[in-house]
Specification:
Sig_transdc_resp-reg_receiver; mainly alpha; Arc Repressor Mutant, subunit A; 172 residues
């Protein structure tokens, strides 16, 4: 097994591996920062978070933030190997979908609050007039926000924007 330690996420971002699993110490904001960096670079690697004596809430938050597994540190070699094998199997199933989700979230993050609201209205099948009524703005203003939203998302059509929102897990 090849292991390559990095001092921090910035150092990792300068030398993305071709494949593998990232073990990251669960410190405040570390998983979010790592996922943001992966999105900016168009990469996705399965993440296993770790810490000493983690509590259930901490583990749940890490998983919701994007880790695919969590381990209590220290860990035996046998336990670590089992965790890595499970993570690799899970990663094969999640890989492309997770990368699309990360990339879609990065695109959605470019939108203003109002553009996200317009995207939500569009995804709900509302007309510009109804979106405008719901948001207390004119239909023309909705058109402007809609055009800006499509441009920022790199979407050619409304259906592309809706697909991006679905991939970002904003819509179900």
């Amino acid at each position: 097994m090849h292991v390559e330690p990095f001092e921090n996420i910035a150092e990792l971002s300068m030398a993305w591996p071709r494949s593998g699993i990232i073990l990251i110490q669960d410190e405040a904001g570390a998983i979010d920062e790592l996922i943001d960096n992966m999105a900016r670079h168009g990469e996705w690697f399965p993440i296993i978070a770790f810490s000493e004596n983690p509590d259930a809430q901490r583990i749940v938050k890490a998983i919701l933030d994007g880790a695919i597994d969590y381990i209590a540190w220290p860990i035996t070699a046998i336990e670590l190997n089992g965790t890595l094998e499970r993570a690799m199997a899970r990663a094969e199933c999640l890989g492309n979908a997770k990368l699309r989700e990360v990339m879609a979230r990065a695109r959605i993050d470019r939108l203003t609050r109002r553009e996200r609201e317009v995207l939500g209205g569009v995804a709900s099948g509302l007309s510009n007039r109804l979106i405008g009524e719901k948001l207390s703005i004119s239909p023309r203003t909705v058109e402007i926000h809609r055009a800006n939203m499509l441009n920022k998302l790199g979407a050619n059509h409304t259906s592309d924007a809706i697909r991006i929102a679905i991939e970002a897990a904003l819509l179900h």
